[in-house]
Amino acid sequence: MDIRSDIPAQDIERYHAKALEFSSMVRSLILSQLEVGFEVKRKSDNSLVTSVDLQVEEVLRQQIQLHFPDHGILGEEYEPENSRAAFQWIMDPIDGTEDMVRRVPTFGSILALHYRGEPVVGVIDHPLLDMRVNAAYGFGTSYNGKAIRLTDLDSAAIDGTERLILPARDNFVKYRDDGNLFDSLVRAHPNHRIYRSCFAHTCAVAGLVDAAIDYGDAIWDIAASRVLIEEASGKFVEVGKWNVPNLGFVYGTVFGKPTLVDRLVEHFRSDG
Amino acid sequence: MDIRSDIPAQDIERYHAKALEFSSMVRSLILSQLEVGFEVKRKSDNSLVTSVDLQVEEVLRQQIQLHFPDHGILGEEYEPENSRAAFQWIMDPIDGTEDMVRRVPTFGSILALHYRGEPVVGVIDHPLLDMRVNAAYGFGTSYNGKAIRLTDLDSAAIDGTERLILPARDNFVKYRDDGNLFDSLVRAHPNHRIYRSCFAHTCAVAGLVDAAIDYGDAIWDIAASRVLIEEASGKFVEVGKWNVPNLGFVYGTVFGKPTLVDRLVEHFRSDG
Description:
Two copies of one chain form a homodimer. Chain A folds into two domains: about 5-150, Fructose-1,6-Bisphosphatase, subunit A, domain 1 (Fructose-1,6-Bisphosphatase, Chain A, domain 1, 2-Layer Sandwich); about 155-270, D-Maltodextrin-Binding Protein, domain 2, CATH 3.40.190.80. In chain A, strands 3-4-5-6-7-8-9 form a seven-stranded mixed sheet, with helices on both faces. A five-stranded mixed sheet of chain A has the order 11-10-12-14-13. Chain A has a two-stranded antiparallel sheet with strand order 1-2. By secondary structure, chain A is an alpha+beta fold. Chain A has nine helices and 14 strands. In chain A, helix 1 runs antiparallel to helix 2 and helix 5 packs across helix 9. The first copy, chain A, starts with 8 loop residues before the first helix and ends with a helix. The mean pLDDT of chain A is about 95.
């Protein structure tokens, strides 16, 4: 029994509708900040943060507190709020901050609602690409407002032409000594791309590629992806979860068309 | 003495202006074909070709023959024309055809004019991204209509945060046994991306990344890139040129901010 069946369908619809409203609000904010300019700083872990990241997360937190005062909030830039609540909004205000700073249009904004750890609503929005994927448990997945379903790959079509997105090699060695996994994956699946942002997830959800792998992610990086993929008839597998000191849990995930996902997961069993 | 100094400046301006006209025409054609739909086939080398690739190259050839009947034409989809002419228009009508078929917006259209083997005019246009870089010898480089100049990286800034675009590993093993080069590059430069199309070149020209490497390309893949990079104060180095049976010459190139390009070129000397 899926615990999410406990949630009345009209509540899921309402959360989903609000998530889309929040996402549109965030898109306008990001586009206006790109127009007028913004501040950029390095965080203690050497990653970038901008005034846009902070403002987007502030706006989302205000909206969530206004509409769902009893829900929790977990985001990249500020402290968790209401962390024992059953419903948790999880966000990465800007995923691919470095790309946004350089105006590479693949960066995006991620928003998800989880219920007792299970994803109920997920949205990934790319303001400069005018691309958005969204899903709600039991209500399917949409890409730019249109319902979509992934068509599985025939296993004979996994012949080297299959389209795979990987994270950079660094993601396999930053917290783990799994560089060998990257090396075997790029050899086994020569038609690979590396986008370094949630654009990889959007491409897998919308079927623009056949599958994607992400590795060494925080919860907010992947919070929207499982419901987005599963509601599109795809498969989402967590291949690893590790507790990193001073950081918390990081995840390894494989998602996309089921037959290819199954094949990819074998790499993590044999080499991991 | 640069042989391109033989060409009157007003001629270069005229070629450049026409190249931009041709590029706008191509953009409209591509956008309308994406709207109405198009035919997709596999070529004998298993790569994709569509009716859009063919139509774009046909339109470009007609326009060039009309305006520059004594110039030569070299393109991916049809036979060379007037191959002994001093001026040669070189084109990849759609670079990243597979991405275009899947609606990944990074594909683009490449057009260049060479004079006795030296690039005079270069344009890369991305219809779905509304992005274009263009340059003419002696007239500088523009990105979306605005003149640009690359700011070199300080060598101390090459500390792992430098932004590099690579081709997929397959490009290093398709015609050469240089997989070790890919393996050493992804280790030495952890902040890497793989886009598999001329979007990599556009990002390097516009300074959205610090440098790019391409490997195993045909002449039309790189025909615009040298003048685009050099006119933006960047550096373009050919690190290899090999004659592949039944295909002709393929090239290895490194281009972008000079200090990083110099550092990258060392990999090809020590490992290549």
